[in-house]
Amino acid sequence: MEDVITSRQNNLVKSIRGLHDKRTREKERRVFLEGVKLIKEALVSGVLPEKLIISEDFKNRLLAGEIIFPSGSWPVITVSDSVMEYMCETETPQGVGAVIKIPETLLRDVKVVPESLIVVLEGVQDPGNVGTIVRTADAFGAHAVILTSGCADLYNAKTLRSTMGSVFHIPVVRDVDISGLTAFLIDNGILTAVTSLDKTSRSLPEADLPRPLAVVLGSETKGVSPEICRIAGAKLKIPMEGLAQSLNVAVAAGIVLYEAFRQKL
């Protein structure tokens, strides 16, 4: 009979629990994916697990045919339901998790072509916003997402959940410094567009957004840095009618990226 891990003191359980910590993830270059959707999207994108962890309940539902989940050559380890809850950060785990190596894309790996659309996040610290923007970038055909130093951790559990698997669909470059970013944009002849409330900003529906294009979004408190604004070829303002003075950065990203997508149709 297959052994079931029932102790929180088990070395594997403790190592997976340790991956909740960013420093441990970065040191080991591994992350623990939680839930059916995220793991399936990783598999579809060719990211294979080093090991799959399933709860007793999940295993029973698999055997009963209540759920369908891909099989493969990776090790499958069964744990008790309570141990699964202990390993996961979600409040109601689905009963399946996977340990994977963290995919890493460097700035030099981003191939710029005439039709490139690149999304840059500068200092966006909310994990939900970062994850949602990665998902939105994927939806509107962006070729890459670049996160500057100071952005929320891409492999934070909340960020990952918010991407809904899009983190595995498009290249995401992490921890890019501003000088390296500006050099990349200039050297590749990329039009840099920033959202700004400056009086010189152009209303988004009237703006021309030719490719290759980088849409830069800053934090809601600080906005885009002066270094990026100095090289911006387009300053954009989203027209609004109500009393709200600003938009959530993920909402603003969706509006701007849709317009860039629409202009390409």
Question: Main traits of this protein?
Answer:
single chain; 265 residues; alpha/beta; 60s Ribosomal Protein L30, Chain: A; Alpha/beta knot; 2 domains; seven-stranded parallel beta sheet; four-stranded mixed beta sheet; 10 helices; 11 strands
Q: How does this model look, in words?
A:
The protein is an alpha/beta fold and 265 residues long. It has 2 domains: 11-101, 60s Ribosomal Protein L30, Chain: A; 107-264, 3-Layer(aba) Sandwich (Alpha/beta knot), CATH 3.40.1280. Helices cover 34% and strands 20% of the residues. It is built from 10 helices and 11 strands. It has helices at 11-18, 22-28, 36-44, 56-63, 81-87, 127-139, 157-163, 178-187, 226-231, 249-264, and strands at residues 30-34, 51-55, 76-79, 96-101, 117-122, 144-148, 172-176, 191-195, 202-203, 213-218, 234-237. The strands form 2 sheets. A 7-stranded parallel β-sheet has the order 7-6-5-10-8-11-9, sandwiched between helices. Helix 6 links the parallel strand 5 and strand 6 (144-148). It is elongated, with a radius of gyration of 21 Å. The N and C termini lie far apart (58 Å). The mean pLDDT is 96.
In total, the number of strands is 11
Low-confidence stretches: none
Rg measurement, Å = 21 Å
CATH topology of the largest domain: Alpha/beta knot
Secondary-structure blueprint:
Elements (H helix, E strand, L loop, with lengths): L10 H8 L3 H7 L1 E5 L1 H9 L6 E5 H8 L12 E4 L1 H7 L8 E6 L15 E6 L4 H13 L4 E5 L8 H7 L8 E5 L1 H10 L3 E5 L6 E2 L9 E6 L7 H6 L2 E4 L11 H16 L1
Parallel strand pairs: 2-3, 5-6, 5-10, 6-7, 8-10, 8-11, 9-11
Antiparallel strand pairs: 1-4, 2-4
Helix pairs in contact: 6-7, 6-10
